Amino acid sequence: MPSSDNQTLHIACYNGFDGLTIRIDTASHAALAIIQQVFRDLAEGKITEIEFLNLEGVTSENIQSLKLQLVEKDPSYKAIQKMNDGSEFYWSRSKDGWEDCVWLMDGLSSDSASGHQYFDQTLGDDAVVVIAHGESG
Prior knowledge:
By secondary structure, the chain is of the alpha/beta class. Helices cover 22% and strands 36% of the residues. It has 2 helices and 9 strands; from the N terminus they run ββαβββββαββ. The strands form 2 sheets. Strands 4-1-2-9-8 form a 5-stranded mixed β-sheet. Strands 3-5-7-6 form a 4-stranded mixed β-sheet. The longest helix is centred in the first third of the chain and has 15 residues, at 29-43.
């Protein structure tokens, strides 16, 4: 995955309207395609865990770790868990759950307009994930 300025993904965690929010921002359709491919690889079982911050082009403001995990069954409680001091997170979904994320990315990446998409708000989640395209700066 070649990295360039137009493929940058910026991730930050803040207290938003919906509570603790993990926001992933990009202006690049190529970066959205990278995220969607990661979701697809998890949905197909090609990978079982990946550190999001290790993807090329990712910069982080205040998160030290965001691990995406494939689990056998979608959690009914806390799909997104905060670890340690709150700068590390685990996002766990089943194959069907990650496939849902692939589908949600379709709407975000198919349009050239700016927008955002919320992912996972399971009972008791420690945070909500939002991916935004073309909305920052």
